[in-house]
Amino acid sequence: MDRTTENLIIELRRGTLVMMVLSVCQKEEYGYVIVERLAKLGISVEASTLYPLLRRLESQDLLTSHWDTTDARPRKYYQLSEKGKTVLNALKQEWVTMQEEIEKIGELS
Amino acid sequence: MNYIERYVYAVKKHLPAHQKEDVGAEIKALILEQVSEEDDFQKIEKVLKDLGSPRKLAHSYRNQNRSLIGPDHFELYLDVLKIALKIVISINIFFGIVSFVGSLFVSEASLGLSIGTLFEDIIGNTISSALTTFGLVTLGFVVAIHFKWLDQNDEWMLKDLPELPKKPSKAGFSLRKTALETLGVGLGMAVLLIVLRLPWLAFDVGGSESDLTILTPANYAFYFPIFLGLLGFYLINQLIVIQQQGLSRLTLTLKILHSLSVVIVMFFMFFMEPAFLRVEDLTHLAELMGLNVSRLEEQINLILGVFLVLIAIGLGFDRYKDTKRLKKESSSHS
Known about the structure:
Strand content of chain B: under 5%
Oligomer: heterodimer
Distance between the termini of chain A: 23 Å
Radius of gyration of chain A: 16 Å
Mean pLDDT of chain A: 90
CATH superfamily of chain A: Winged helix-like DNA-binding domain superfamily/Winged helix DNA-binding domain
Number of strands of chain B: 0
Structural class of chain B: mainly alpha
Strand content of chain A: 5-15%
Helix content of chain A: 55-70%
Low-confidence stretches of chain B: 198-213
Helix content of chain B: over 70%
Shape of chain A: globular
Order of helices and strands of chain A: HEHHEEH
Mean pLDDT of chain B: 72
Structural class of chain A: alpha+beta
Number of helices of chain A: 4
CATH class of chain A: Mainly Alpha
């Protein structure tokens, strides 16, 4: 695979990363588990990318968070907010539409 | 030792105060999910290396809205900066030349020194003014963006849509450019005639043949090839324009007229009897201006030299602008 293709794929994946993270956060999770769950799905995201992204989504009120200090190791948990649910649904809908459009283009060519 | 704590501390050092504790704790928790201080060095090193340098990791938390002028305002910023720089540079060059011409008649400095000072002044002042302008425009935008003075709503009207660029006409005729060219050629020729023949300096002192430097045959022999070169440059320039843009009857007529005017003026300058300015006239003028004759001669020659250089620069610049414009037009219509 040449470099241009690689870069385009990275860009495409980056564009969908928010949707993937929001999807994973439908259930309350902490950062490390989110990285692992994504990895299991074949989605490789660096922690250094995911953690700032989680914080950004939180600042946009798409995620809520809280610290759990009951364990010896404190962990910050994230979960989809009401606004996040609405946004995730809109993104999913858009994703389906785009997929249909791409298929239509495929049929034309 | 204590690599994890030190790593977290290093990250926190690069974070804003309100993020330090929360982000620091989260990063520490992330690291401790994978490794502990009791683990061997290689394992700790791998985990920390995977996270990247502390500075880079901290910056990834801060990379939003970090640009001084964001993409929303950058085009406007560039436009304003270009206009401001053009104005400042033009003013500097204009006043530099005015002050230079003025100094020719009052300063006792040598010609070389005068020219040196001219370029030094213009370049020095232009660079410092350009830098100041750059700083002020940037600062103005930063303030305006901060206070949201430039924020616009997304409402727009059809009438606000920009006009399509005009297609180059079949013959490439541009009324504005042709008018400017005609004006330029006319003014240039008039100035040359005035400077070289100085009819306004003829104080009717009467008849002997001039032996002034600027009017001697030897001096004409010096200037003639330069004028001929400029004429050749001008004609080649016109041919390139015609070759690039095509030719209409009007453009052709005007270009012939321009070229003819240059030829006629040159003929007038170099082959007619140069009898306007005489030693007596120049002496009179020098007396009026409180200068000696040789000084006045020197300065008139210098003005002529500067004028010739400006014509050459103007022609070169015209060629460059034309080529750039044509490229832009052809790309916008391709």
